[in-house]
Design goal:
Layout: H1 57-81, H2 93-119, H3 127-132, E1 134-138, H4 147-161, H5 166-169, H6 180-185, E2 187-191
Helix pairs in contact: 1-2, 2-4
Length: about 200
């Protein structure tokens, strides 16, 4: 534009230049085609270890058998100490009931003390667990169980055994491979190789 020619002067500042109307600007509120909608955000993963870190049923069973054998030996020794001849063959049906009751009392007492103590220690392992390389831990934080919950788990394990060991076999189809006593105590059994003594947040490398 020449001097003296009527018209609008050119703006010196780029910010003063005219822009498109606001309704033509693309933005996050502009609708997208139906096939381009963003997917909903993924839900955070559930607490606890990943499935690959959970201890398998047969490894747990082997550890439980080792623990039961050890508890049985200790219970037998305690029974003998207090004059309970637990393994003498019964002479008749009445004696059979008496001897079975004598065996059950020391066994349950030793079982409760044994599993409560070992599962509430820093390692979260009974002797059978340690041999089989597994640990019993809190399902959310990955820490050993408190003594109250370890005792509750040990007590509930007797209930799990009542209906043909259904409470133990429950781990075969449960998502976290939890038994009934795991569910009551809010515990989970993991591989010690994946989670050595520590927390879920510090798995083995």
């Amino acid at each position: 534009m020449t001097e003296g020619q009527p018209g609008r002067p050119e703006p010196d500042d780029p910010d003063d230049r005219p822009t498109r109307p606001p309704d033509t600007l693309p933005g996050p509120t502009a609708p997208l085609p139906a096939d381009r909608y963003a997917p909903p955000p993924a839900m955070p993963p559930a607490g606890g270890p990943p499935p690959g870190a959970l201890a398998g049923f047969w490894r747990r069973l082997a550890g439980a058998l080792l623990d039961c054998l050890l508890v049985g030996i200790i219970a037998s020794a305690i029974g003998a100490l207090f004059g309970l001849d637990t393994f003498t063959p019964p002479a008749d049906q009445g004696d059979r009931f008496r001897i079975q009751a004598n065996l059950t009392g020391p066994y349950i007492l030793v079982e409760l003390v044994y599993f409560t103590y070992f599962h509430a220690t820093s390692a979260g392992q009974s002797i059978g667990n340690k041999i089989m390389g597994i640990r019993v831990l809190d399902v959310a934080g990955g820490r050993p169980l408190p003594y109250v919950r370890a005792f509750t788990r040990a007590l509930m394990s007797n209930v799990s055994a009542l209906p043909c060991f259904l409470g133990f076999f429950w781990a075969l189809w449960d998502r976290r491979q939890q038994t009934w006593h795991d569910m009551v105590a809010d515990s989970v059994v993991v591989k010690a190789s994946a989670y050595p003594p520590g927390e879920f947040g510090r798995p083995a490398r």
